[in-house]
Design goal:
heterodimer; A: mainly alpha; Methane Monooxygenase Hydroxylase, Chain G, domain 1; 4 helices; 0% strand; flat; B: 510 residues; mainly alpha; 20 helices
């Protein structure tokens, strides 16, 4: 019973080995030539023009939250899609209710003006 | 291609009966969504939302009453994960009645505080739905769903006064501690699942019944689940959030959460501990008894020194939770042929607590000043001279909380303590009686203040007028407090029938 978990232990061992081993190897063997440019935040190749620590419009957060909510909800469609034929009419009705509920949510944020940028 | 391959387990879909028996929950759930949509079209006429919310709650109440007669000896829905029994219908009725009273007192209060947003009503219904799920939950998964459903709604509701720092603080504290509680609960569920291999209460009960030796891991799981529930029922030592949240939240929200959360939490405690973990009774009895005594002592002693009614009622609600927990600590023990058992006592007490506590908080809600709550003791001085009926109602609720006959509060305490005595737990009952004796002091102190002459006769009185809706709610709560205190048998027989039909049924040989 307990030996069923042995692969997990082996896995954990390898995780530790790689997590500690690879960085320390690279630290020991790799060349080290520090320069100010290397400490800059990565901006897809462009030299950063100002500090990234400034205030963002709250609209970003609202949009991001709404995206996450609807994105996560849509994940439920995937397991449903794999068995939709066995579920027959029941499955169609259930997913219809689910999507209708989502639509109500979308309608709500839309009418409340959460999708407006300014 | 995937769709053609045969499934590993044959697919079973819930029957139409499952849906039909879930009618109360479906109505409230539909109401929640409908209210969100309605909020988009009513504009500033928000009292329509209150009307609609009451219609949905009343329909849910009707469906629950129908379910009470229809469920008979009870059966499970959705393959054993939800109960359709008199117990959950009893709790549903208490919950829906309480929610409707809260909706009645809300519009006027929210207008005066300047926080009348349409989401309020939808969130109240969402929280009620979570509690109804909790009341009927027969699976660890559904329990968690219910707990989160009610918690998430209440986190938002307690921070509903967005510009007020105290309300925000309350919401944050509740969110953080509630999150911890959920963590404890889930950990406990994981351990119990790991030990028994089941998530459904019936199967867990059967699995526990056949084991002779209780595993430490299993006991740890049971204790962690209790911690999770105790947070929601605000039992000592998991009560620390209660006074701050109750005081910081808008009073109508406090009214709602102080009553309904406890009702739902105790419903699930009874179902899980008294009936599912029944074979582990000897293990959890001591913990539950100690928590009950601690809640009674801490709640009552701390309530003595308060100077604000909301805080005092918060501590008093901790003590009340302690009394109710005595009924749980009794378990299914009864050494006499008496019909008063722990669960009957708990159910009666919950109904009694609901009408009384709603009434007491409703008075504070109704009397709120413009933009602020008037809940300091000084603010109530002389209330009886300006608002004699409201003050009389408040006096009645305070007497009921203190346990004076012929109010419903007296019989609540009586049945719980009698159940403890029946089970040879006299010491536990004595703690409860001693606690009630202390509580009389701080309840009567408020009652006397209301009947004292105001300091300055010329002073402007900031108390709000009582609206028709608010008056109706007060009248209903007062009537419940008095009538059920006189016609005890109505509620008692109901509680007994609910107890007799509760699922999971205990295996006959113990």
């Amino acid at each position: 019973m307990l030996s069923d978990y042995a692969p997990i232990l082996v896995f954990l061992g390898f995780v530790l080995l790689f997590a500690i081993g690879v960085p320390s190897l690279s630290a020991a063997l790799g060349p080290r030539k520090p320069s100010p440019a290397k400490d800059l935040p990565y901006e897809s190749g462009i030299v950063p023009r100002e500090s990234a620590r400034r205030r963002f419009s709250v609209s970003f957060y609202v949009t991001a939250m709404l995206f996450i909510i609807f994105d996560v909800e849509s994940i439920f469609l995937f397991p449903w899609a794999t068995i939709v034929r066995q579920l027959k009419v029941f499955g169609i009705v259930e997913i219809g209710i689910f999507i209708a509920t989502l639509l109500v949510g979308l309608l709500y944020v839309w009418r409340k003006g959460a999708l407006r940028w300014d | 291609m995937l769709a053609q391959s045969a499934p590993l387990v044959p697919l079973v879909t819930p029957s139409a009966n499952d849906l039909l028996d879930l009618l109360p929950e479906l109505i409230v759930g539909f109401g929640f969504i409908a209210l969100m949509l309605l909020d988009l079209v009513v504009g500033r006429q928000r009292w329509w939302l209150a009307v609609a919310a009451i219609v949905f709650l009343a329909a849910g109440f009707g469906a629950s009453v129908w379910g009470w007669f229809d469920s008979g000896n009870g059966h499970t829905l959705y393959f054993g994960s939800f109960a359709y029994d008199k117990f959950s219908m009893f709790i549903n009725c208490v919950l829906l009645f309480s929610s409707a009273l809260v909706i009645l007192i809300s519009p006027h209060y929210l207008n005066r505080r300047g926080i009348h947003h349409g989401e309020y009503y939808a969130l109240i219904l969402a929280a009620t739905l979570g509690m109804m799920l909790l009341a009927g939950a027969m699976s660890l998964m559904v329990i968690f769903l219910g707990i989160e459903g009610l918690s998430l709604s209440l986190y938002i509701l307690s921070g509903f006064s967005r510009t007020e720092e105290r309300s925000q603080e309350a919401a944050l504290k509740y969110l953080l501690l509630g999150g911890f509680a959920s963590g404890f609960l889930l950990y406990g569920m994981a351990l119990v699942y790991g030990e028994t291999g089941h998530t459904q209460l019936q199967q867990i009960g059967a699995a526990l019944h056949s084991t002779t030796q209780a595993d430490p891991m299993l006991l740890a799981g049971v204790v962690l689940i209790f911690v999770g529930f105790a947070f929601k029922a605000s039992l000592v030592p998991f009560h620390t959030w209660t006074p701050d949240v109750y005081q910081g939240a808008p009073t109508s929200v406090t009214t709602f959460m102080s009553v309904t959360t406890k009702v739902a939490a105790f419903a699930v405690i009874v179902r899980v501990f008294t009936y599912t973990f029944v074979s582990l009774y000897s293990h959890w009895e001591v913990i539950v008894a100690v928590v009950a005594i601690a809640s009674i002592v801490v709640g009552n002693v701390a309530a003595l020194t308060q100077t604000h009614v909301k805080r005092m009622l918060a501590y008093s609600s901790i003590a009340q939770a302690g009394y109710i927990l005595i009924g749980v600590a009794v378990g299914t023990l009864s050494n006499t042929s008496s019909s008063i058992t722990g669960t009957t006592g708990v159910l009666y007490y919950l109904a009694a607590y609901a009408v009384t506590q709603i009434g007491a908080f409703a008075v504070i809600t109704i009397m709120a000043g413009r933009g602020e709550d008037l809940d300091s003791y000084d603010g109530l001085r002389g209330l009886a001279y300006r608002r004699p009926f409201v003050a009389a109602a408040m006096g009645l609720f305070l007497l009921s909380l203190g346990g004076f006959p012929p109010t419903v509060g007296f019989f609540g305490k009586f049945f719980v303590f009698a159940a403890a005595v029946n089970a040879n737990l006299t010491l536990l009952a004595l703690w409860g009686i001693a606690g009630s004796a202390i509580s009389v002091f701080y309840y009567l102190r408020v009652a006397l203040l209301m009947y004292q002459r105001p300091k300055d006769e010329q002073q402007e009185y900031p108390w709000s007028r009582t609206t028709i809706a608010g008056g109706t709610a007060l009248l209903a709560a007062a009537a419940g407090t008095l009538v059920f205190g006189i016609l005890v048998a109505v509620v008692f027989n109901g509680a007994q029938a609910a107890q007799n039909a509760i699922l999971p049924a205990i295996a006959s040989t113990r």
